[in-house]
Specification:
Largest sheet: 5 strands, parallel
Bound molecules: flavin-adenine dinucleotide
Distance between the termini: 40 Å
Structural class: alpha/beta
Radius of gyration: 22 Å
Strand content: 25-35%
Strand order of the largest sheet: 3-2-1-7-19
Number of domains: 3
Number of strands: 26
Length: 414
């Protein structure tokens, strides 16, 4: 009898799991349930669509035929509400049930709402789906003023969108610099200058106390905690992601701001796996649970889950150094590994648009940020993978070209 594989979520994690399952078991039943109204698209590119630079077509990754050709059943607009792990069945919002032999949870995250007055007003946008991007674009095209809140990797996308759409925009940040958990003021200054050059004004030690709305409930302005008022017909909010697992309550599946899995993408409950942004996975490089929001890592986790689901065994383990690049400026920007979890850092500025920071934890390199020159990213990823003790060799790591031969610490793993 064929094995029935059920996947919740048709993002890159769910979709790559389905592809792997089909490749490895031509007889398996494979079904994907997604609450979105469209099949897998490139979430990384929706910002370019929102800027007005790309048409819709290149953003789609899979047409419906892709699923048909592989005999994968795709159910759109289908929200999973509950899972019964004893009976091995899930229930959807329409009252339908789907039985499984193997279940994959690949439900990603959803943007956190700003907990201030009027944050749900018309004209205030959160950003995760293609549908969000369509609304962001349409509305930005009709607006003249804007504010962006959230000084991180998604917030800067919204800032770049407001610039590309020609809005007179302010970028309200709580601290004294952009992405202060990973960058120093010196590194962030390069980003601030680039934002200003694009027409977005960074405002520091700010944020939003409340939004003002007009009689029709449309946003008019953001007022920051200092009482300063910023006109905004359009607002973009990106203050983090919620990893909603309430619907898994009572299933016995271990949860901790996400779904807890081992390096094989297995949860603690038989026949239930998870992959992608939703996981708190066991990181074999740092020997601790970790979370990672990036496309490449979600894709790899999906594929590893698919392999292990078919094998019904611990065949492939996840071991990965992620990276996340930003392409809004004339210079490249890349974050790799876990740049915010270090207990010490080292940094250097090489020119007006070149800067590097590396972060260490317990003597090991854990991540970093490269601005202007990305040529050393492979060397840094290799050092992380090899678990070398390098915190005492900062000078070598800050040289423009990192010579791995010169590092004194031997690789501890491959
Ligand atoms: C604007 C933007 C820009 C980004 N830029 C980059 C970048 O430059 N580089 C990078 O590496 N990463 C980037 N990311 C992050 C990257 O897109 C994510 O890490 C990746 O898409 C996660 O994939 P996933 O499959 O785990 O989750 P998701 O892509 O979030 O997919 C999960 C799917 O599950 C569905 N779902 C959730 N709950 C249910 C339910 N109960 N029932 C049915 N379906 C459900 C969701 O609707 C969604 O379709 C960006 C993200 C955004 C939003």
């Amino acid at each position: 009898m064929s094995t029935s594989h059920l996947i919740i979520g048709d993002g890159i994690a769910g979709s790559s799991a389905a592809e792997t399952i089909r490749e490895e078991d031509p007889e398996a039943d494979v079904t994907i349930l997604t609450d979105e109204g469209e099949a897998l698209y490139n979430r990384i590119l929706i910002k370019e669509f929102a800027k007005g630079k790309l048409p819709e077509a290149p953003i789609s990754i899979h047409e419906p035929e892709w699923y048909e050709e592989r005999d994968i059943a795709l159910e759109l607009n289908t929200h999973v509400e509950t899972v019964d792990t004893d009976e091995q069945v899930v229930h959807t919002h329409t009252g339908d049930s789907y039985e499984y032999d193997k279940l994959l949870i690949a439900t990603g995250g959803t943007p956190t709402q700003l907990p201030v007055d009027n944050s749900d007003a018309d004209g205030i946008h959160h950003f995760w789906t293609f549908e969000d991007a369509r609304q962001i674009r349409e509305h930005a095209e009709q607006s003249e003023t804007g504010v962006v809140v959230g000084a991180g990797l998604l917030g800067i996308d919204l800032a770049a969108i407001s610039a590309a759409q020609g809005l007179d925009a302010h970028y309200l940040m709580r601290g004294n610099c952009w992405w202060r958990y990973a960058l120093s003021e010196e590194g962030a200054e390069i980003i601030h200058d680039a934002l200003e050059e694009k027409g977005v004004k960074p405002v520091f030690n700010s944020g939003v106390d409340h939004f003002e709305v007009d009689d029709e409930g449309h946003v008019e302005a953001a007022v920051d905690p200092n009482g300063e008022r910023f006109e905004a017909e359009w607002a973009g909010v990106a203050i983090g992601l919620d990893f909603n697992t309430e619907w898994l309550q009572g299933t016995g599946i271990e949860r901790d701001n996400g779904v807890v899995v081992d390096e094989y993408m297995q949860t603690n409950v038989d026949n239930v796996y998870a992959a992608g942004d939703i996981t708190q996975y066991y990181d074999t490089i740092f020997d601790e649970q970790a979370q990672n929001g990036s496309w490449g890592s979600a894709k790899e986790q999906g594929s590893i889950a698919g392999t292990n689901m078919v094998a019904d065994d611990e065949t492939d383990a996840f071991r990965w150094v992620s990276s996340y690049s930003i392409t809004h400026f004339d210079f490249p920007f890349l974050s790799f590994g876990h740049p915010t979890i270090g207990d010490e850092t080292a940094e250097r500025k090489y020119s007006d648009t070149e800067w590097r920071q590396v972060a260490f934890k317990n003597g090991q390199l854990v991540g970093g940020v490269l601005i202007g020159d990305l040529s050393q990213q492979s060397a840094f990823k290799q050092i992380i993978r090899e678990e070398r003790q390098v915190a005492d060799q900062k000078e070598l790591l800050l040289e423009e070209n990192v010579d791995l031969e010169k590092l004194e610490s031997p690789p501890e793993a491959d």
